[in-house]
Amino acid sequence: MLPRVIDAYRVLPELVWCGFGVLAMLMQPFVRSRHFFTFLALIGALVGTAASVTSAMHAGPGFEGLVQSDSFSFFFRLLVGTVAFLVVLVAEPYLERERLPCAEFYALLLFATAGMGVLASAQELLTAFIGLEMSSISSYILAGYRRDSLKSSESAMKYFLLGSFATAFFLYGIALVYGASGTTKLTGMGSEELFHSTYFELGLAMILIGLGFKVAAAPFQVWTPDVYEGAPTPVTALFSAGPKAAAFALLLRIFATVPAATHFWFWAFWTLAALTMFAGNLGALVQTNVKRLLAYSSIAHAGYIMVAFAAVTFMARSGAAEAAPAYAAVLFYLLSYALVKLGAFTIVSQLGGTGEKNLSLDDYAGLSQRQPWVAAALSVYLLSLLGLPVTAGFFGKFYIFKAAVNSHLLWLAVLMAINSVIGAYYYLRVIVVMYMRESSAEAAAAPPVGFPLTLNFVLAFTVAGTLYFGLFPNQVLNFILQPTLLGR
Amino acid sequence: MLHGGHLLSVLIFFPAVGALALLLLRGDDHKFIRIIALIVSLAEFLFSLLMIRAVPAGATGYHLEEYAKWINQPPINYHLGVDGISLFLVILTTFLTPISIVASWKNIEHRVKEFFVMLLMLEVGVVGVFLSLDLFLFFLFWEVMLIPMAFLIGIWGHDRRVYAAVKFVLYTMAGSILMLVGIVWLYNATGTFDLPTIQTLLHTPASQGGLELASRTEMLLFLAFFLAFAIKVPLFPLHTWLPDAHVEAPTAGSVMLAGVLLKMGTYGMIRFCLPLFPEASRRAAGWVAVLAIIGIIYGALVAMVQPNLKKLVAYSSVSHLGFVVLGIFAFHNISMQGAVYQMLAHGISTGALFLLVGMLYDRRHTFEISEYGGLATPMPKLAAFFLFVALSSLGLPMLNGFVGEYLVLLGTYQRHWGWASWAALGVIFSACYLLWSYQRVFFGEITREKNRTLPDASAREKWILATMVVVTLWMGIGSTFITRRTAAAAQDVIDQVEPQRPYEALVPKETAPQAKRDSARAAANIVARERLGIR
Hints:
The complex is a heterodimer.
Chain A: H1 5-10, H2 12-27, H3 34-57, E1 60-62, E2 67-69, H4 71-98, H5 103-121, H6 125-143, H7 150-181, H8 198-214, H9 223-230, H10 233-257, H11 259-285, H12 290-316, H13 320-352, H14 367-370, H15 372-386, H16 392-406, H17 410-436, H18 441-445, H19 453-471, H20 474-480
Antiparallel strand pairs in A: 1-2
Chain B: H1 7-24, H2 30-54, E1 63-71, E2 76-82, H3 84-103, H4 112-131, H5 135-144, H6 146-156, H7 161-190, H8 195-202, H9 215-232, H10 241-248, H11 251-276, H12 278-304, H13 309-329, H14 333-364, H15 380-393, H16 400-415, H17 417-442, H18 459-477, H19 480-497, H20 512-532
Antiparallel strand pairs in B: 1-2
């Protein structure tokens, strides 16, 4: 059967992002102006994000159930689209400073975004695989975008090798699931006999490993610090916000549609969550490089989200409605987390200076004196990561707590509480360095690092978002708590 | 639901507005910034006095309630209210803030604007904690208050300030995050964060739609809350952050820390632990009392051997707060009132002690007692103030410390004479360390030449000290003004812990002479109660 027009509507954002990506590549030999490509990418990201409204208005399964356009995919498309838009803004001064070509960068960024969009809306495993590959392959190249930097190349190589390994797991998992259920469509996996099928469980386990790698869950997290550190900082910002959210989105959708999945994964998530939280937080304790510190913190936060997943699996046994608050907790957390990490990496990117030299904690000493507003913004992000009230991070953590306690996962909640305190130590350390230590003579003498308008916009946007969702989370919550979030 | 307008909201957010205004000012006109901060805090103090009218003596329940929906899912409401206990704690806060501001007039020279912004933000958090009637809102203010305090210690403190600030935050956070788990658990069981509603539900039998907790669950919940509060108080053996924080904090930070922040812990016990988990409170009371008594004696003994004057005052706080905790967990109206009174008295007298220690530090830049000696000669006025404040802190009758300690001991004695007699040791010890340190600092020969020419109290210092002294004296003789208002609220809490054990039932019915003696004692108690204005 031929695709209908309405199918195109349902994947419109991805089409737009890809289209603009291709356009950027085609124009590259002809146009020299950097600004042109920046505007092209910005418009592309924006139009794609706006197009997600169109596809949300035409909600329903597309291409005979390969993708699903619903509120859930709308939420994630908005999220990754906004992330892409902000990353373009962050990347513009960075690319200029590092003298890197920009057309390819933006094209790859848009392809990656399209891949994430596909992941978030895929209702069929091979489609999801294509989305995963689109976003991963673009990510590998983006990680190594600073070709002449050894670290960047190392980062790309590591990411590529381990990433392809994980993708292989994912693909093998699909094969097994297909073997057991006879379909790759998530909606077709509802039969009772799958509950006790070994092949099916093995397949799901492999899919979990593949996605676990993407979201940096322990014990699949080893790549994260090196890749995050080596990649150009705007790309790191993208990694920590975009692909992670998309991979979590796919995991959530698998739960919501495959009953057997929830039956089997509870203890897996319990263990993953505990391991990941400790791996991230203990690792971050000893870091002196801010970028690495944030990388470890992003592992820790994956662990917190995993706690919510454990709650999801627990509650989903007694029906989807029961699990709704836990789903909402994941979504809200991803939103708050994306805002904060983007903002934090923006600052790290700009303060890093040419060649990303100033990344150590000592370079941040006395920042509050030299650049009070930047220090204040970074403090807001760190406090949100820490989970202090009046920031979005607090509500994120609170809802996860609530979901965990709700599902009687008291011990996991207590482990999370312990981890929050460990986390508090290293986030506070950065604040302490910024506010309570004097700048080095050299740094005090140097002129303050300029923040161009684009970066200021990103900072203002993310700070405002963090505080707004920290004070008035109502609207988002009402949206993500609606019963028809995942169209079925 | 709304009766009293928005006075409480104003009280919470007025300093925040002031802080915001300060932020927008230019940073280099220090005098202007100080004046603005002072005006804001004085206005706040006057606002807080308006509350007194709304809390009539002898009335129970919450007054001036404010209620608004904030978040739908889960239902978190903006619910404020004040009762006899929180009333005076708020006034204490708003009173100590302008005092701290004046005390920091001269000795804060760098990053002046940020300092006063932090001080006002601290006030926002503390007042919010005392006025919140929604568990979630309470937790929010509880956490928010941490950051300005940490900054006050960490930026304007002394040598090991960063260590002390981080230790302070981590200790408090460890406790409060467990409390968050407890709060969420309560929400899951009751479906609301509203304190009065939860309280009613917990006190209603399950057959009538209430919630009865299994005793193990109740104990765990009690511990989750209690630990957070005990760290804040701090109860022995969780007190180790306090000496560090106090010694490293600037004078204003110490005043606020000792004056009101510690009271948040004991306030939490009165407001949450006892009414919500009465059964667990009763079961834990013995242990808590033992820890409190250890704290009283241990704090006093350690204070006695401190070579550092500020650390001495800090450890005296551990000792004095032990009295408060003991008074609360004796479950007796008089001891409970004593605890509340001791909270206020300690805020004033220890606050004043820290002010005085800070003034000595401004002159000599050291806290070592051995560096001082014979100071009464160059500065007789400061010495006189110090003596007065030390006497009030050690509980001399007619001054504020006496009322609280006496009531705590009196009430505790009715409950358990052993506890009271051990705790009474603390009173003796406090006289020892305070008078002994006073002697070493102010009397004797002048051993350091530098001390000979130290200036006496300046006009500004005299004003703040005189204010503190007047309040001390007033609280010592006019105590019924306060007890009349706290009595009903305290009885309310006791009723929830031990409804089956009204106060008079304590009198055992034995042999005739014994009964006679007891009834005489009861009569004396009734007289005492009337004198104190208890129902």
